[in-house]
Amino acid sequence: xxxxxxxxxxxxxxxxxxxxxxxxxxxxxxxxxxxxxxxxxxxxxxxxxxxxxxxxxxxxxxxxxxxxxxxxxxxxxxxxxxxxxxxxxxxxxxxxxxxxxxxxxxxxxxxxxxxxxxxxxxxxxxxxxxxxxxxxxxxxxxxxxxxxxxxxxxxxxxxxxxxxxxxxxxxxxxxxxxxxxxxxxxxxxxxxxxxxxxxxxxxxxxxxxxxxxxxxxxxxxxxxxxxxxxxxxxxxxxxxxxxxxxxxxxxxxxxxxxxxxxxxxxxxxxxxxxxxxxxxxxxxxxxxxxxxxxxxxxxxxxxxxxxxxxxxxxxxxxxxxxxxxxxxxxxxxxxxxxxxxxxxxxxxxxxxxxxxxxxxxxxxxxxxxxxxxxxxxxxxxxxxxxxxxxxxxxxxxxxxxxxxxxxxxxxxxxxxxxxxxxxxxxxxxxxxxxxxxxxxxxxxxxxxxxxxxxxxxxxxxxxxxxxxxxxxxxxxxxxxxxxxxxxxxxxxxxxxxxxxxxxxxxxxxxxxxxxxxxxxxxxxxxxxxxxxxxxxxxxxxxxxxxxxxxxxxxxxxxxxxxxxxxxxxxxxxxxxxxxxxxxxxxxxxxxxxxxxxxxxxxxxxxxxxxxxxxxxxxxxxxxxxxxxxxxxxxxxxxxxxxxxxxxxxxxxxxxxxxxxxxxxxxxxxxxxxxxxxxxxxxxxxxxxxxxxxxxxxxxxxxxxxxxxxxxxxxxxxxxxxxxxxxxxxxxxxxxxxxxxxxxxxxxxxxxxxxxxxxxxxxxxxxxxxxxxxxxxxxxxxxxxxxxxxxxxxxxxxxxxxxxx
Length: 804
Hints:
elongated
């Protein structure tokens, strides 16, 4: 007992002595312009250039740093948007406390307002991605993200809004680094163009990312204000085509103390028109289609961030999406002959139904004492419900004008639930070495109900239920080092994948369960400060989606019916890339070369319908044999004069395809499989040219060309267009008015021809010639929050498991 008392007294004496021989620095940080306290400013105490202690100011701008040795120090105070303060202080036996009160002065270059958008877009090549910072020239492209995408190098958007990257549509689309249950083509039409901060093209993702997407990842990063006080922006526009389409969005942010509230909502509505013609040459059959879609879409997001302290942040948000569609498809099929046994067919079909998606996200971030040392936890849940009621009114007419009428309806109900939990850890072992690791569980549950009154469908198949469930468990680790001119990163992802599909009739089930490794490697060499060379390798996978596997009608016309294939296998891709970036005096140029090896590529098939091989066709999916691909892309960002800059880009890809097509024999009225091998080449060119005659007024000229493509099934013809636009800025740069005339000469159309399974040609066109008028207004202008908060919002790569 006496020993314990002695030790306690001894330790107390030592602690008292240490306290008496240490110093304390305290003070208050305010704004020079209005004497307002600055919260979360960074205060650092340095000795001989090395940080020995530091804190962030509290909500009142106050700080205290204790237990400092009695020495001479340098004190640095930093806050984004303000000039850095550097001073000296001396702690000694005679002066053990020091008070430092500082008034920080704003940077002369600080901009007011929110969501500051540069005049022109820029392209930057980083170690694992190409980053396109969206400027005002791109936001003038149109109302939505879908309109911007066709202006991005290496990205193509087809007439249905589907994306492809480097000529391949096996691309994964993320919003702020996270997947969505919403179909990307639909989602991009609902995101306002003014909400986009940057677009990241990750053509060869590392092991830290989920491995889906043969051609890589397109990550769309949205603006999110990190400003204190109340800030917001409004954008609205109207697109004039055959009819007017409207869009509007509102972004709001309120930051006070340790809590940041944010929200945004968007709406677009209108009627969109398409038309097409398919001509069968061997029997002189002409099929004409007129398609209209009346859409009303809502998308909003609400969330908050709570800064527990300078080391811990808790965040929550929810996305809610609702889409109501009313589609009409008129199919007119003419058999241009006098055979009394052949009917002309006229079908009027209607599709109507709402789609609702709710997403809920909870995230926690811990920042360790060492700079760059972080731990992230995230949980994400989304639920999508889609109902469709379809009605078909089909009239068949003989050459003698006698007719027959059949009316029936279909009901489809889809539900998808996606649950994701992941953890990501980053540890800079030293100033040259970084270790990253993470794990993720991703569970998907899908249910599809189908009920049809079609008299041609067998009775036992008129009511069906199809389920498609996947369980994915994964873990990754990456290790990287940086040297003076050379850096590398090696990594691998371990993944367990299990799928189970079941169709209620015919006892049709499908199961697959496998474990795979996905390695990656990055090498970067800086030839000098203006020339950077990069090499990368990755292994990717494309798994069949429910749309590709569902053995239930996706859509149907009198001559074509679309089904999925439940026995599709995943396709694996090994990809190698070399990228080069050169910084010029007035811009930069980036170029890349890639080679891919593809196993079991998933592709479309068009084959005769066994129920009527002479007239009807089945559109489905299958696995083709081993394929290979190579290509390159080049993009330039160059400012010719103060008032004129250009952004040309080209990309080329060549894909060797091997697979099976069907050839119909009209003599025997049968079709037979045929092995076919082709080398498909795709070439795309773009030119963005911006002219700025005054500070407020600017003009743009955009040209696009897509070369012809021969694939294993058909030949696609070339496409090209030219757009012109202008933008005017007013109200101290807070308001922008944009005007754009798209496809001035109305040259955009999708045309094709082929001989499998029948010789046929076709062409589809849509409202490509439109005029867009848009307005954007920013309000609020508070100061930007602390550095750590900003780093959290920049959406740069900080972890895997599907999280950037």
